[in-house]
Amino acid sequence: MKILEPFLNWQAEIQAIRRDIHAHPELAYEENRTADVVAQSLEKWGIPIHRGLGGTGVVGIIKGKIAGTRAIGLRADMDALPMQEVNTFPHASKHEGKMHGCGHDGHTAMLLNAAHYLAEHNDFAGTVYVIFQPAEEGYAGAKRMMDDGLFTKFPMDAVFGMHNWPNSKVGSFAVTPGPMMASSNRFIITVKGKGAHAALPHLGADPIMAAVQIAQSLQTIITRNRKPVDAAVLSITQIHGGSADNVIANETVLRGTVRTFTLETLDLIEKRIKEIAENTAIALGCEADFEFDRTYPPTINHPKETAFAAKVMRTIVGDENVNDSVEPTMGAEDFAFMLQEVPGCYVFIGNGMGDHRLAGHGLGPCTLHNGSYDFNDDLLPLGATYWVKLAQEWMAQS
């Protein structure tokens, strides 16, 4: 690996920042302390900042000393998850029910590391915007930053994002043009029936039986309505109804998620869920109310920027450590909103197999959204090197 030398000298400092953020996790739109750490670090390195986009967002502005109009955005997320950490090493979460279980602490630290270098080695033409975003975990902080003027206040030619990926070796990268991650969507179906004594079911209209029929029928959308080549997931994750063994309920609620790589497939699934829910309920003497929330669109990488990012990766870790046609994941990411507005690319960086964790880690695997997870600090120099090389080479294009 071709790591830029200053990052090896700065490892202790940036690792301390990462672990401090890990120990003090903050949920969506509450990242005040984290934003202060980011802002103070950037200002210490002489980087002008703008605060307040998306509530707690921070943007650093790094101008090259050579006149130029090119501009690139590098983005990291800052928020933690509402989950309990089971690790007991010294930098484990100090806040009950809050944890950096997805590595956003590491993403923030890698980008800070890169910003430090670019501020000291600004012999490029153009501007690098380092974007520290709140509320990625389900609350669309990217979109809120955009609504607050991210791309109008700071116009960019391209924007790039990165996420650590457990069970991939340290020193590896993965990316693909086109869909990289799926859309994320929620649905709620409220089936309204008529309550009755369970011994006299003919006097009521049973919403639980209607809900069961709806739940079974919804899977025909995936197996009979969707083109087999169009990947999609429809999962019912909750069914709530009833209060006693001898009472037929008045109402039953089904909730779940839909994931797709295209908006056309998503349109089809939403339409068919509504039709099946409403008509099945009517057939069984009930009514169905349907709600569908399109949380995040698919994360779709732009081909030109993806090829550029893969080329940069190869210069750092070699051809054998870059997978430029990785299988997309059904996970979702609100960086998708940015890619709808500005060309760019989202990549994965290998986080290792979990053996980097200190004594005191939990027994669970070191996977995302797991109480035993921890970001691998060995990535801090590598991820920062990627960010720097990406920005430098983007600016150097003719």
H/E element string? HHHEEEHEHHEEEEEHEEEHEEHEHEH
How many separate domains make up the residues?
Answer: 2
Number of helices: 11
CATH-defined topology of the largest domain: Aminopeptidase
Q: Which descriptor suits the 3D outline?
A: elongated
Average residue pLDDT: 97
Helix percent band? 25-40%
Give the strand order, joined by hyphens, for the main sheet.
1-2-4-3-5-16-6-15
Main sheet summary: 8 strands, mixed
**End-to-end distance:** 27 Å
Low-confidence sequence ranges: none
Classification by helices and strands: alpha/beta
- Taking all Cα atoms into account, the compactness measure Rg is 24 Å
Cofactor: Mn(2+)
Organism: Jezberella montanilacus
Domain Peptidase M20 dimerisation: 186-281
Protein name: Hippurate hydrolase
Characterise this structure.
With 398 residues, the chain is of the alpha/beta class. The chain folds into 2 domains: 5-180 and 298-395, Aminopeptidase (3-Layer(aba) Sandwich), CATH 3.40.630.10; 184-296, Alpha-Beta Plaits, CATH 3.30.70.360. Helix content is 35%, strand content 25%. The protein has 11 helices and 16 strands. It has an 8-stranded mixed beta sheet with strand order 1-2-4-3-5-16-6-15, sandwiched between helices. Helix 2 packs antiparallel against helix 4 (104-120) and helix 9 (303-317) crosses helix 11 (379-395). The longest helix is centred in the last third of the chain and has 21 residues, at 263-283. The protein is elongated and about 80 Å long. The two termini are 27 Å apart. The mean pLDDT is 97. One of its GO terms (biological process) is diaminopimelate biosynthetic process. Its cofactor is Mn(2+).
